[in-house]
Design goal:
seven-stranded antiparallel sheet; alpha+beta; five-stranded antiparallel sheet; about 475 residues
Length: about 475
């Protein structure tokens, strides 16, 4: 079957066999992507988009078809300091984007130490939580405009990128693709974002970038319980006093900051049960005065919340800041404890995090998972108005423990949803409890039928129906 499929491919560069065993093709332009989608419609071949380099965890195909590998599309044709925006292709990684932004005095908006081969566009499309909540005004941030190919084969640009004119003509007139709404009165980008590749294939995006501050220091506020750090985070975010802001428990902090066994042992001894990690910056206008003012605010708010400043469990504050500005070193930080891990993530409010962490640990204990396997990462978003909670379960790769951990991570969503957790990014089995509403599922099915009528794009993702006529495989 694979040989026959490869022989039918249009004249496009072939890629290596994907990790899930699918043959892959590597388009290098939107014209090639559109040609591929048109061919797939005629041949009834499912397409599974991907732009991050291996390894990949979420959104695996789990079926037959063709992987559309856009990891070699790595151009950054536009960076604009005045508007704090960049336009880049699907395969650009965070390290590549940071290199392109640095000469203009800008920095990318990043999640917490992503994989080195992680696609920036894929990260933003999937609405992964980022570590700069003070700069996030909408849950779609920092994503702005997109160029996509729908399942119909039509090429489409969202927001102000829709025109008129080419990109170069828009740039010459001062339009830097900063407006995400439109064209018209519809917010087309939101139909695609979070769709896990089931609505369209994205070839490039424009996204917000932030000014690289002239002065920035990182601080660790520690406590034996979570409550003082929640209060401290609320106070600091309300005053817009910090840039980087997240909370981790001891296990996650040790995993994040150490690599070797010797480092881990020492860091485990030093780590406090809970830590709030923040950075205070000076910006570009009166940087020293601003930095001094907000450092004083940090010290006061930490003291009044009942927490205190400490050193990181490993390294120095300077080395921690350097670590947080880059993708993760190998091995990936979430897999350092046992070699593999599974993540359970959802949204809630910051004041409810403690109850969910306690509940998750109880569910894990009933499944035979000990507290030494669990790490917690808490990421405020939208200036603290909503919070991303990520609970990590370490496991040994390739054996019974990994299979049991996978099963637990899939099953625990239902009770957490019943307790009030909001799974805004449902994968696999999480789709059932997260999208239990018939109205929600009907809206998604209607959108799928409009933008991918033959249902060739990632069939089955988000629990959506496949093609009732089957596929020609």
């Amino acid at each position: 079957m694979t040989t026959d499929l490869l022989q039918k491919l249009p004249d496009l560069p072939a890629g290596p066999t994907a990790g899930d065993g699918l043959p892959s093709v590597r388009p290098t332009s939107v014209e090639q992507v559109a040609k591929l989608v048109g061919w797939a419609r005629e041949e009834r071949v499912p397409l599974w988009p991907r732009s991050s380099q291996a390894p990949r965890r979420h959104g695996l195909a789990g079926g037959s078809g063709l992987a559309v590998d856009m990891s070699t599309m790595t151009a950054v044709p536009m960076v604009d300091r005045r508007n704090r925006v960049a336009l880049f292709e699907a395969g650009v990684t965070f390290a590549q984007l940071a290199d392109a932004l640095r000469p203009e005095g800008l920095r990318p908006v990043m999640p917490l130490c992503p994989r080195g081969a992680k696609s920036v566009l894929a990260t933003y499309l999937e609405r992964e939580a980022t570590t700069l909540p003070a700069f996030q005004w909408d849950l779609s941030d920092p994503l702005l405009c997109l160029e996509v190919v729908y399942g119909t084969g039509d090429v489409f640009r969202t927001g102000s990128a829709a025109g008129p004119g080419t990109l170069e003509e828009q740039w010459s007139s001062g339009d830097m693709q900063k407006g995400p709404m439109g064209p018209g009165h519809a917010d087309w980008m939101r139909i695609i974002q979070g769709g896990q590749g089931s609505i369209a294939l994205a070839t490039w995006c424009s996204a917000k970038a932030e000014v690289l501050p002239l002065i920035e220091t990182v601080h660790v506020v520690a406590s034996d319980t979570l409550t003082p750090l929640v209060e401290c985070a609320y106070r600091l975010l309300r005053r817009n006093a910090v840039d980087i802001c997240f909370i981790v428990d001891a296990n996650a902090f040790v995993d994040l900051t150490t690599v070797t066994a010797a480092e881990r042992a020492e860091a485990t001894r030093r780590a406090r049960p809970w830590s709030l990690v923040v950075s205070v910056s000076g910006g570009t206008e009166l940087p020293r005065r601003r930095h001094e003012h907000y450092t004083a605010v940090l010290l006061r708010e930490a003291r009044e919340a009942g927490a205190r400043l400490v050193d990181p469990p490993a390294g120095s504050p300077e080395s921690l800041l350097e670590l947080l500005r880059k993708p993760s070193a190998e091995p990936y930080w979430k897999e350092r404890r046992s070699g593999a891990s599974r993540e359970v993530f959802f949204q809630t409010t910051l004041d409810a995090v403690g109850d969910f962490v306690h509940s998750f640990r109880e569910h894990a204990a009933r499944a035979g998972i000990g507290p030494e396997q669990i790490g917690a990462y808490v990421q405020p978003q939208l200036g603290g108005r909503v919070t991303h909670v990520e609970l990590l379960v370490a496991c040994e790769p390739g054996g019974e423990q990994e299979a049991d951990t996978e099963a637990f991570a899939a099953a625990v969503a239902a009770p957490l949803v019943a307790e009030g957790a909001f799974f805004s990014r449902p994968y696999g089995e999480w789709c059932r409890p997260a999208l239990a509403s018939a109205g929600s599922r009907d809206v998604l099915e209607r959108a799928k039928s409009i933008f991918d009528p033959d249902r060739i794009l990632a069939p089955g993702r988000l629990g959506l129906k496949g093609n009732p006529d089957g596929y020609n495989l």
